[in-house]
Write a structure and sequence with these properties.
The complex is a heterotrimer of chains A (347), B (193) and C (396). In chain A, 70% of the residues lie in helices and 0% in strands. Chain A is mostly helical and 347 residues long. Chain A is globular, with a radius of gyration of 22 Å. With 396 residues, chain C is of the alpha+beta class. The chains are: A mainly alpha (347), B alpha/beta (193), C alpha+beta (396). At the B-C interface, strand 1, strand 4 and helix 3 of B face helix 2, helix 9, strand 6, helix 12 and strand 7 of C.
Chain lengths: 347, 193, 396
C-alpha cells in the first residue's frame, strides 16, 4: 500500500527536500549562533575600542580583560524587571521590539558569508534587504508611539524620518553597483567584482561608497546621526520606556543592523569574501586563506570605523541631518548613477 | 568675529559714590530719606513711591549709566526699624566702574513696590525670589510666582518672625504631611527585629 | 499649512524636561512648548535644591557659615569660600597678609580651571562629543588631587579662612602644581584638536543663543557668559581682590555673543588661569598666612594649646562670634560662573543680620528663555551648557 501511495521518485524528492531543509536549518542555526555571538562581542569590542580611545580601559572586571562582560550584561538584561508604562498601548508595545529585531535578523539570511554559504540565495537580495530594513522603521515608530511618552514619541518620529530619508540615499548609492554588476543577487555582485579589473567596486564607485558609508551610519542611528536616541535631549529616544528583555531586543536589533550594514558594504563595495587579483598576484599565498576570513575582516574593519566615528565627533542637529540627507547625499548619489550609466553605455 | 584678549587696567574712572548720591538728591529731593556711607560704599535710602523713576534715571543718565543690576534683595528689619522692609538695589556701571546702593523702604502694612523689570530684565527672578522670601509684592511684575519654594508653601521664610526650624510641620506644607502619613501607613512593614 | 493647522486644531507639544534628565546638570526643570522641533516657550523651574543657606547664615556666626558656601557651587567650592571670606573681611575691615592673598589666588584659579574643565566636559558631552568628557576629567582629577594635598578634601574644601587661609602650603605641593601648569597648555590643545575646528561642533554652536552686549548686561549675565558678548567686565580687574592686582593677565572677550564665542572665551580663560597660577608660584612671598587682627581671627592652634589667654580668646570667638561693626556691605568676586556677590547687613552682633548670596547661576537660569526661544530642541541643550549652570548655587 505504502509503495503504491508514494512512488520511489516522489520519495527521493521528499528525501531531497528533507536534506535541503535540514541543511537550511543547520545554516540558519550556524548564522544565528555566530550572529548573536558577534553582537555580544561587538558590544565588548565597542566598549574596549572607545575606552582605549578615551584614555580608559573599558570593561576589565568580568573574566580576563572583561571578556565575559557581554555574557554578564545579557544575563542581567534577561533577569531585569519588565516594566510597562501604565498608559502604554500594550499589544503594540509588545510588538515594537519584536518587529525591529525580526526585521534586522531576517536580513542575515541573504548575506553571502562565503562563496557558497548563504541561507537564501535569492536573485533580488539587495532589494530584499531594503524592503526589510524599511520594515524595521515600523518597529521603531510604533514603539515610540505605544510608549505614551513624549520623549519616545519624538524619538520615534525623528527616527522614522531619518531612516526613511537615508534609505533613499543608500538605495541610490547602490544603484551604481547594480549597474556595474548587472545583478541584484549579492553572490553575483561579489563574483562580478572578483572578475572585474578593479577587484572591488569601492574603487570605481568611490563616490557611491562614501555616500553609502554616511547613509549606513545614519540608517543604524549611530553617532553623529544618533538623534533618535540623542541622550542629552531625548533621554533614550524611542526606547526610553523599555526595560529588561524588551530593551535587549532593541539593543540586539541595532547591533545586528550594524553588522548587516557592514556586510552590505563588504559585499557591494569591498569584494565580499574575495580579495582583489592584484593583491594575490603580489602575495600569492593569500589565496589559501578561506574566504570567510576575508569577509569577517572586512566587517570588523567597518565596525571599527563605526566606533571610531563615535569616539571622535559630536552629534548633528535634526535639521542639519535632514539637510545633509536631502541636499547633499541624494543629489550626489543621483549624479553618480548618471555617470555610471553613461560610462556603461559608452564603453 | 573672534575672541580677543583684552588687557584691562584696574582703575576707577567713574564718579565718586558721594557724587552719585548728590545727583540723586538733586533730582529727587523729596524721595531721598537718608544717605549713609560704610566702607566707601554709599547707600541712598529712598521712599518707595518713585523707585521706578529713580532707577530709570540712574540707568539712562549718560554720566551715570548704571546699567548692571548686581543684586536686588529684600531685608526685614522686624522690630528694629520702621518701616519694616527694605528692598536693596546694588547698581554698578560697567562703563564708568562706579557703584551705588539704593534702599527703598517698604512698610509692613502695604508690602508692595513697583517692579524694575522694565529697566533691567535680570531683575525678574530677583524680584520673584524677594516675593518668595519676604512676601513683598512687585507691582506690574510680568510673572510674580514663588520661585525657590513649592507653589503651595505658606509663609515667607526670610522674614524675621519666621522660625528657623520652620513652623509646626503637621500644620504646614501638605506635601510633607502626605509623606508623614505615608510613612505611618508603611510602619506595619517595618522590621521589628 | 495654517489652514491644515486650523482644521486639525494642532497645538504645541508640552514637554517636561527634568528635574531628572541627562542634560539638565542636576535638578533644573524646563517646561518646553515645542512646535515640531522648534521651541516656542521655555519656563524654567528651579528650587529643587533649595536649602535655605541665606536663612541658615543668619543663625550662624561668620565662622560657622563658611562651610555652607562650599555647598553652593560644589564644582568650584574654593572660589565660593574665597568670595565669602573676601566679603567678610571687607565688613570687618581686615586685610589678609600677602602670602595668604597669593595662596588664595592660586587655589581660586585652580578652582576656575577645574570648574571650566567640568563645564567643557559636560557641554561637549551634551553636544555629543564623548571623548572630550573623559579627557577633561583626567585633568580635573589632577587638580582635585592637588586640593587633597593642601587641605585633605577634594570637593568641599573650606580651605580659606576669614583673614587668611587655614594652613600654609608646602614646597612639594608647589612643585607638583608647577608641573601641572607646565603640562596643562598641551592638554588644552588636545581638547581643542577634537572640537575647536570640528565642522559639526561649529555647526552646533555658531549662531546659537546669540545675545547682544546691551541685552546681556540688561539680563544681568556675568562672567564668561557676558564676556562672550563683548563686554569687558571682569571683577578681578574692575574691583581687584586678593592678589589679582599683582599678577599680569588678560581677559578674553568675544564679539558675537553666541555659544561658540562663549566656549572660546572659557578656553582662553583656562590658559590665563594657568598663567596666573604660574606667576603666583613664582612671586609667592614668605610670611604669615593669617591676618594680624586678634578681634576677628582665631589664634594659631599651638598658642591655644599652650596659652590660657589664647584659649579664652578662641572660646569667646567661637561661641559668640566676632562682633562685626554695624553696617552693610556688598562684595562681589569673580567665580568661574560669573559674579558671586555677598551682601551682609550687620547689626553689630556676632551673626549677620541678613546674609544674601547673589549667585550667577540663578540669574543665568533666568535668562534661559531669552536664549532658547526660536531655536530647536537640540539647541536648548547647547544653551543650558553654555551658561554653565550649577543648581546648588542657583537654588542655594
Amino acid at each position: 500500500m505504502l509503495e503504491n501511495a508514494i512512488r520511489p521518485e516522489a520519495l527521493d524528492a521528499l528525501i531531497k527536500i528533507g536534506i535541503n531543509v535540514g541543511i537550511a536549518i543547520i545554516k540558519i542555526a550556524v548564522v544565528l549562533g555566530i550572529g548573536l555571538l558577534h553582537v555580544a562581542y561587538a558590544t565588548y569590542f565597542e566598549r574596549k575600542v572607545i575606552g582605549h580611545m578615551q584614555v580608559r580601559l573599558g570593561p576589565m572586571r568580568v573574566g580576563p580583560h572583561g571578556l565575559l562582560q557581554p555574557i554578564a550584561d545579557g544575563l542581567k538584561l534577561f533577569f531585569k524587571e519588565d516594566i510597562i508604562p501604565a498608559n502604554a498601548d500594550k499589544p503594540v508595545f509588545y510588538l515594537g521590539p519584536v518587529i525591529f529585531m525580526a526585521a534586522s535578523m531576517v536580513n542575515l539570511s541573504v548575506i553571502p558569508f562565503a562563496s557558497n554559504f548563504v541561507i537564501a540565495n535569492i536573485n533580488v537580495g539587495l532589494l530584499f534587504i531594503f524592503a526589510i530594513a524599511g520594515m524595521g522603521v515600523y518597529g521603531i515608530f510604533i514603539s515610540g508611539w505605544a510608549s505614551n511618552s513624549k520623549y519616545a514619541f519624538i524619538g520615534g518620529l525623528r527616527s522614522s524620518a531619518q531612516v526613511l530619508s537615508y534609505e533613499i540615499a543608500m538605495g541610490l548609492s547602490l544603484v551604481g553597483v547594480m549597474i556595474m554588476a548587472g545583478s541584484l543577487n549579492l553572490t553575483d555582485i561579489v563574483k562580478a567584482q572578483e572578475q572585474s579589473i578593479y577587484g572591488m567596486y569601492a574603487i570605481p564607485q568611490i563616490v557611491a561608497f562614501v555616500v553609502f558609508v554616511i547613509a549606513a551610519v545614519a540608517e543604524t542611528n549611530r553617532t553623529p546621526f544618533d538623534l533618535p536616541e540623542a541622550e542629552s535631549e531625548l533621554v533614550a529616544g524611542y526606547f526610553t520606556e523599555y526595560t529588561g528583555f524588551r530593551f535587549a531586543l532593541f539593543f540586539l536589533g541595532e547591533y545586528i543592523a550594524m553588522i548587516i550594514m557592514s556586510s552590505l558594504a563588504a559585499v557591494c563595495f569591498l569584494g565580499g569574501w574575495t580579495i582583489p587579483w592584484y593583491i594575490t598576484k603580489v602575495l600569492p599565498f593569500l589565496k589559501y586563506v578561506p574566504g570567510i576570513i576575508w569577509f569577517l575582516l572586512k566587517i570588523y574593519a567597518f565596525i571599527f570605523f563605526y566606533y571610531w566615528i563615535r569616539a571622535t565627533v559630536p552629534r548633528y542637529r535634526y535639521d542639519q541631518l535632514m539637510a545633509i540627507g536631502w541636499k547633499i547625499l541624494i543629489p550626489v548619489a543621483l549624479a553618480n548613477i548618471l555617470v555610471t550609466g553613461l560610462v556603461k553605455i559608452l564603453l | 568675529m573672534a575672541v580677543r584678549l583684552i588687557k584691562m587696567v584696574p582703575i576707577h574712572k567713574g564718579l565718586e559714590p558721594t557724587e552719585i548720591a548728590e545727583k540723586i538728591k538733586e533730582n529727587f529731593p523729596d524721595d531721598v530719606v537718608e544717605v549713609t556711607n560704610f566702607r566707601n560704599i554709599v547707600s541712598v535710602i529712598v521712599k518707595k513711591g518713585r523707585i521706578l523713576g529713580i532707577c530709570k534715571y540712574l540707568h539712562d543718565e549718560p554720566t551715570l549709566c548704571l546699567d548692571h543690576l548686581q543684586d536686588l534683595c529684600g531685608v526685614d528689619y522686624h522690630g528694629k526699624k520702621e518701616p519694616r522692609f527694605e528692598v536693596v538695589y546694588n547698581l554698578y556701571s560697567i562703563k564708568y566702574r562706579h557703584r551705588i546702593r539704593l534702599r527703598a523702604q517698604v512698610p509692613a502694612d502695604d508690602p508692595s513696590i513697583k517692579t524694575v523689570t522694565s529697566i533691567w530684565a535680570g531683575a525678574n527672578w530677583h524680584e520673584r525670589e524677594c516675593f518668595d522670601m519676604f512676601g513683598i509684592i512687585f507691582k506690574e511684575h510680568p510673572d510674580l510666582r514663588r520661585i525657590l519654594l513649592p507653589e503651595d508653601w505658606e509663609g515667607h521664610p526670610l522674614r524675621k518672625d519666621y522660625p528657623l526650624k520652620g513652623p509646626e510641620l503637621e500644620k504646614d506644607w501638605p506635601g510633607f504631611v502626605e509623606v508623614l502619613n505615608r510613612s505611618k501607613e508603611l510602619e506595619e512593614f517595618e522590621w521589628k527585629g | 499649512m495654517e489652514q491644515v493647522e486650523r482644521i486639525f486644531e494642532t497645538r504645541e507639544l508640552n514637554v517636561n524636561m527634568g528635574p531628572q534628565h541627562p542634560a539638565t546638570h542636576g535638578v533644573l526643570r524646563l517646561v518646553l512648548d515645542i512646535d515640531g522641533e522648534t521651541v516656542v516657550k521655555v519656563t524654567p523651574y528651579v528650587g529643587y535644591l533649595h536649602r535655605g543657606i541665606e536663612k541658615l547664615g543668619e543663625s550662624l556666626t561668620y565662622f560657622q557659615a563658611l562651610p555652607l558656601t562650599d555647598r553652593m557651587d560644589y564644582i568650584a567650592s574654593m572660589a565660593n569660600n574665597i568670595g565669602y571670606c573676601v566679603a567678610v573681611e571687607k565688613l570687618f575691615d581686615i586685610e589678609p597678609p600677602e602670602r595668604a592673598k597669593f595662596i588664595r589666588t592660586i587655589v581660586g584659579e585652580m578652582a576656575r580651571i577645574s570648574s571650566h574643565l567640568l563645564w567643557l566636559a559636560t557641554h561637549a558631552l551634551d553636544i555629543g562629543a564623548m571623548t572630550v568628557f573623559l579627557y577633561c576629567f583626567r585633568e580635573r582629577e589632577w587638580i582635585l588631587e592637588l586640593f587633597e594635598k593642601i587641605c585633605g578634601a577634594r570637593l568641599t574644601v573650606t580651605y580659606p579662612r576669614i583673614g587668611g587661609v587655614r594652613n600654609d602650603i608646602s614646597q612639594e605641593f608647589l612643585d607638583s602644581l608647577y608641573k601641572f601648569t607646565e603640562e596643562f597648555p598641551s592638554r588644552i590643545l588636545e581638547y581643542e584638536t577634537l572640537i575647536d575646528q570640528n565642522r559639526i561642533w561649529l555647526k552646533r554652536t555658531i549662531g546659537i543663543g546669540v545675545i547682544s552686549a546691551e541685552e546681556a548686561i540688561n539680563w544681568g549675565l556675568t562672567g564668561p557668559t557676558l564676556r562672550g558678548s563683548g563686554v569687558p567686565y571682569d571683577i578681578r580687574k574692575h574691583m581687584p581682590y586678593d592678589a589679582y592686582d599683582k599678577v599680569d593677565f588678560e581677559v578674553p572677550v568675544g564679539t558675537e555673543g553666541d555659544t561658540y564665542e562663549r566656549y572660546r572665551c572659557r578656553m582662553l580663560e583656562l590658559r590665563q588661569s594657568n598663567n596666573i597660577i604660574r606667576q603666583c608660584i613664582e612671586k609667592l612671598p614668605p610670611g604669615p598666612i593669617m591676618a594680624d587682627a586678634p578681634k576677628f581671627t582665631l589664634p594659631p592652634k599651638d598658642y591655644i594649646l599652650k596659652d590660657m589667654e589664647h584659649l579664652i580668646h578662641q572660646f569667646v570667638l567661637i561661641t559668640k562670634g566676632p562682633a562685626a561693626p554695624e553696617g552693610e556691605i556688598y562684595v562681589a568676586t569673580e567665580v568661574p560662573k560669573g559674579e558671586l556677590g555677598f551682601y551682609f547687613v550687620s547689626d553689630g552682633s556676632g551673626k549677620p543680620y541678613r546674609m544674601r548670596v547673589r549667585s550667577p547661576s540663578f540669574i543665568h537660569a533666568g535668562a534661559l528663555p531669552r536664549l532658547c526661544v526660536g531655536h530647536l530642541v537640540a539647541d536648548v541643550i547647547a544653551n543650558i551648557g553654555t551658561i554653565d549652570l550649577v543648581l546648588g548655587e542657583c537654588d542655594r
